[in-house]
Structure formats: C-alpha cells, structure tokens
Amino acid sequence: MTQENQHACNEAPVAVAKDVQRAPDELNAKPTPLQTSPTLSISVCEDTTPPKVIWNVPYRRNPFFTGREALLQQLHDYLTQETTAALTQPPAITGLGGIGKTQIAIEYAHRHHDEYHYVFWVNAAASVTLIEGFVQIARLLQLPVKEEQDQNIVVENVKQWLANYDRWLLLLDNADDLNLAYDFLPTTGKGHILLTTRDSATGSIANFEVEKMDKREGMELLLRRAKILPSPAPLSQASEADQVTTTAIIDEMDGLPLAIDQAGAYIEETQCSLPAYLKAFSSDEMSSCVNEGEQAKNILTQLPPLGLSTSSRWSSLTQLPPASCVPVLSSLQMPSPLR
Questions:
Q1: DSSP assignment of 21-88, as one string?
Q2: Residue 165's pLDDT band (boundaries 50, 70, 90)?
Q3: To 10 degrees, what angle do helices 3-10 and 257-270 make?
Q4: Is the pLDDT of residue 56 over 50?
Q5: Backbone angles phi, psi at 15, to 5 degrees
Q6: pLDDT single digits (tens) 251-291
Q7: CA 256, 257, 263 angle in degrees (round to 5)?
Q8: Is 263:245 a contact under the CB 8 Å cutoff?
C-alpha cells in the first residue's frame, strides 16, 4: 500500500464520523428529475382526468441496498390489507438516526411503483417543507389552486384530491413531529401513506421499528459498497480473511447501516485495505475523539454539499483536523439536533 493510501486510511475515523453526522438516512441518494405524463387541468370539484402517472421521489434506487426484506414485506402486507387501517393508522418507519429509515422508504417506493399511478414524496421535517411539498403536488396535478397565494388552501385541495382518487402513495420523510405531519394527512381515500420518523411514540400511527443490521447483512453491505464483493454475490464468495476482518469492522460500527455504508465508500475511494481501515478506526486517535461531540455543529459548516460526488466529499472530510472528529456511535444513539 502506498504512503498516500496509508495516510488516507489513517484519516478514516474522521471521515466516517463527519459524513454520518452530515446526512443520516440519505446515503448515496441522488436527486432525479420529476417524471410526469402530459398534464391536464384538474379540480377536485370537477369530473376531470388526472395525469396517468406521476413520480416525484427525488432519489434514485440505492444499488447497494441490503437486507430489510422482512420489514419491507410487513409494510407491503399492512398497506395492502383489505381494511381502512392503512389510511386511518398509516405505517411509520421508526428508528435511530443512521438506521436506514429513508433508504427503506426509497426502496419500497421503487420496488412497488407499478402498483401506483401516483407516488408523492414530501420532506416532512418542518411545516414549511410540508407546505412546499403539497404545493409541488398541486402543481404536478395541475390543480386550479396551484398558484393560490394562501397556501393553506392549496394544502386542503391536495388533501381533498387524495380523498377522491386511488392508487397513490404519499411518503412523508423525516416526520419527527408526528402531530404536525398528521395535520397534512387525508382522513379518507383509497391511497397509501408511509412515514419515516425518529419518534417511537407514534400514537395512532402504526409503528414499524428498524433494528440494527444483523452481522451477515452488515458484512454484505460493507463488502459490496467497498466493491470487494460484487453485488449481488453471496457472502460465501468473499475470502475467509476478508470475512474475519469485515466482522470486526461491523462490530465497531454497531450495526448502523449509514456508518457501514460510509466505511465501504471510504475503502473504495481510497483503495484502503480492510485490515488497514480496521486498524485506523480502532486506533487511539479514534478513542481520543469520544468526548468531542460538541464540535459537531462547527464541523457541519465545513462539509461540502451532499450533491457533490463521493470523491469530493471524502476529500474535504479527510482534510478536517483529527481533533475535530465526532464519535460515530455515541452521537447517533443519544438525542441530538443533528440529523
């Protein structure tokens, strides 16, 4: 291994810690253009035909998505049951930051897109983003009120449209304030609603909690993301040595998918070997960072935009001073304003 690659490996803890703090649940998701059919003028008060297909999920399907099969099947079974529960008690994907909630929602939307005519994605992090999302839906549907100055009217018309039509999927991502998100949900209709949230106290909303990845799934994700194991090759095709080292890395990551994914991305980008990465991650340098959580807010201001390439992001992260690093696991498992 070259001196340059060895240096990159030694900076691995810094990169993983910062990138995990930068965007839990949005790993490798790249925006794609909205896809709509030729639009028609629509009114919830008129007997008009809406566009045949609308898709505004802003993320591509993650080629490295691994596992979660049981949870995805449970969500599908719940949403397609012949009762009104799926609408009156919509399912919420819950769990820690970095556990993969958004990625599961993205995978669900892509996997079952052919079951819907309309798939709407809304950022539910705040009231302003919810309103913006519903205004965008009104424009996609070409509702007569789409340019209405009073945006509350637009939101109510979208809710009414959802109540009048079927075969739609509404995804509310980052709905950590469930009381706020609930105000935007239609109470009738024949569509499906799916939320993601950190709030485990979901009340009347059905709770589908995301657990940490089991060891086998974590190993497959790391090796595939690092391009050491071709996807979808089985874990058995990896060498025994790689499996042993990967197991140790997964233990260090505590089963958090985002941490595992970012480790794999770093290994791929720097051509760092698995043993070298494990050594760097387990070094005294990482241990010295455990009490540096207060540095997180300052570090976030130094990070490049998520739209940049993986290479650009890692390049910037590895230039941050080691003393600024933020512990990966403790910060993700404790309450924090950082997402």
A1: HH-TT-TT------EEPPP----TTS--PPPS-EE---S---TT----HHHHHHHHHHHTSSSSHHHH
A2: very high
A3: 160
A4: yes
A5: -65, -45
A6: 988 889 999 999 999 999 999 999 999 988 876 444 444 33
A7: 95
A8: no
* Spans of all domains in the chain: 3-23+212-333, 35-209
- 67-90: pLDDT as tens digits: 999 999 999 999 998 666 767 789
CATH 3.40.50.300 fits 35-209, yes or no: yes
pLDDT attached to residue 281: 81
Distance CA 17, CA 258 (A): 10
b/e string for 159-178 if b means 16 or more Cβ within 10 A? bbbbeebeebbbbbbbbbbb
What is the DSSP-derived secondary structure letter of residue 97? T
Distance CA 161, CA 288 (A): 55
Query: Does residue 322 carry a pLDDT above 60?
Result: no
Q: Is residue 122's pLDDT more than 80?
A: yes
How are beta strands 35-36 and 54-55 bridged, if at all?
antiparallel
Task: Evaluate if residue 240 carries a pLDDT over 90.
Answer: yes
How is residue 303 annotated by DSSP?
S
- Please tell me the distance from the alpha carbon of residue 256 to that of residue 279, in angstroms, as a whole number: 19
Say if residues 255 and 218 touch (Cβ distance below 8 Å). yes
d(CA 14, CA 320): 7
Q: Contact at 8 Å (CB) between 263 and 286?
A: no
Which tokens sit at 207? 């709770």
Tokens of 153: 């009217």
What is the residue type of 211? E
Q: Which class for 140: exposed (0-12), middle (13-18), buried (19 or more C-beta within 10 A)?
A: buried
Q: Which residue has the tokens 């940490």?
A: 212
Neighbours of 335 (CB within 10 A): 6
Token readout for 266 is 């770093």
How many CA atoms lie less than 13 Å away from 152 in the CB half-sphere?
1
Average pLDDT over residues 216-226: 94
